[in-house]
Amino acid sequence: MERGLWPGRPVLLPDESLSSWFARLAAANGLQTAELHRILQPGGDRSPRDLDRHADFQILDRLSAKTSITADALEQATFRRWAGYVFERDDGLAKLDWLPPAGRDGATRCFGQQACPLCLAGDAQPYLRLRWRLLFVSVCPVHSCLLIDRCPRCNEPLAILRQQQRGGVNCWSCGFDLRQAETVQPPVNYLPYQNRLLTVLADGWADLGDHVGLYSFIYLKVLALVVRLLTGGPHAYALREQAELREPGLAVPPQSLPRGRDLAVMAPAARTVLVAMAMVLMRDWPNTLASAADAVGLASSHVRKRHGESLPFAFAQLVDWHLKKPFNAEGRIEVAGLKEMLERQGRKPTYREMVETVGTELAAMSDMAEPVANGAAWGQGRYWKLDGVSPEVKEAARLMAHRSGQSVGPWLDNLLRQHLNLPSGREKSSESPIS
Ligand SMILES: [Zn+2]
Ligand SMILES: [Zn+2]
C-alpha cells in the first residue's frame, strides 16, 4: 500500500469536504479512517485532527501522490478555500468566528459539522459538503429544512473522521445512519438571509452603510459581533425585541431561545433566528443598530468591555460615534462624589440608587456601587430584577432554571404565573423550544 497509487481512489464530489473524502478514501481501501490516518502520519494522533482545517501541505501532497488528485483540488476541499473570504488568515490556533471545530476539542463537544439528511439520502454515495461547516449555513437550500448538527439518537456531535463504519455517513458513537434523521422546518424564513451571506462570500465583498466594498471577512466579523450581542449578555433579550419590532416575522417566544454564551454551541434552529436578527439590525448601517442600542440602553462602554480593542473599523465607528457614552469617560470622580453625597443623606449608594439620583448610567457605577443586600447583585439585565432577594435564593433560582433548561427570566416568569394563576406568557402553542 505504500508504493505507488492506492487501489481505491474516489473522486472528490461537488463541494465535498476533505474529511468526507478522506473517510471515503479509507473505506475504498478497506480501512477505517483512523487506520488510514496512521498510514499517512505514522506516530500521529489516534484520532485524526479536523482535516478540513488542519490538513497541512505535507498531508495534501502525500494524499495527492497516492490518489493522483491534485493537491490544489484537495486544498480547495479545506477551509483554505475561504482564506480571505470567511476569515483573513488562519494560524490554526485562534477561534474562527464562522468555522467552529467539529466533533471533540479535548473534552468539549463541538457541533461544527452539520448535514442535511435528505441530501445524504439522495446521494449515490453519501458525503459531507464543505459548506455545511459554515455556522451561518443552517438550512438546506435544496430541501429548505434545518441542517442537523448532532446525532438524533445519542446527541453526539457529527464527526466523520471518528466513525467506525466504512462508507456512508453515520454517527461515530452509536452508528446511527444520518439519512434516517427526521428533518425539521426552520422557525423563521431564514433562506433569504443565508443566500445574502453566501452572495457576500462569493463576491468577496459587501457594502455596509458608508463602508463601500468591505472585504467579506470584515463584513462577517461585524456580523459575528452583532450576533454576539444578541446571543448573550445583559442586552440580548432587549435587542432581540428591537429586531422583532423591525421584522415581526422573526418573533419567537423568548423562552424558546435562551441566552447562550456562544453561537457555535447553539442549535441550527436558534442560529437561524439570531443571525437573521443581526442582519436586520445591520440594515442602514449603523443607524438601525444605533437606535436599537439607544432604546435598550446599550452604551459604548458595554461593547468595549466585551470586545476589547480589536474591533473592525466599521464596528468601532458605530461604537465610538453612535452609541451613547457614559457622560464622563471615566466617571469615577463623579461617582465617588455621588456616593459621598448619598451617604451624607443616609442613603445606601447602591447601583439603582445612583442611577435614579443621576438619571443615567455611568460606567463606573457598576463596579463602585455597594451591594444591595449582603451579597453582590449579579445581573442588571431587564429580565433579572431581583434586587433585594437574598444571595442563596438567587443561586437556587439560577440552578433550578438551568436544570429546567431555561434562562432565569423566563423560568421565573412561568413560576410566578403559576403561583398567581395567570395564563402562561407569550408562548405560542405551535412552536416548540428550538435551542
Ligand atoms: Zn438537503
Ligand atoms: Zn449517535
Written account of the structure:
- This protein has 435 residues and is mostly helical.
- It contains 18 helices and 4 strands.
- The strands form 2 sheets. Strands 1-2 form a two-stranded antiparallel sheet.
- A hairpin with a 2-residue loop joins strand 3 (205-208) and strand 4 (211-215).
- Helix 8 packs across helix 9 and helix 9 crosses helix 10.
- The longest helix is centred in the middle third of the chain and has 16 residues, at 216-231.
- The two termini are 46 Å apart.
- Mean pLDDT is 85; it is low at 374-384 and 427-433.
- Bound molecules: zinc ion (ZN) (2 copies).
- One zinc ion binds at residues 116, 118-119, 140, 142-143.
- Residues 151, 153-154, 156, 171, 173-174, 176 line the site of one zinc ion.
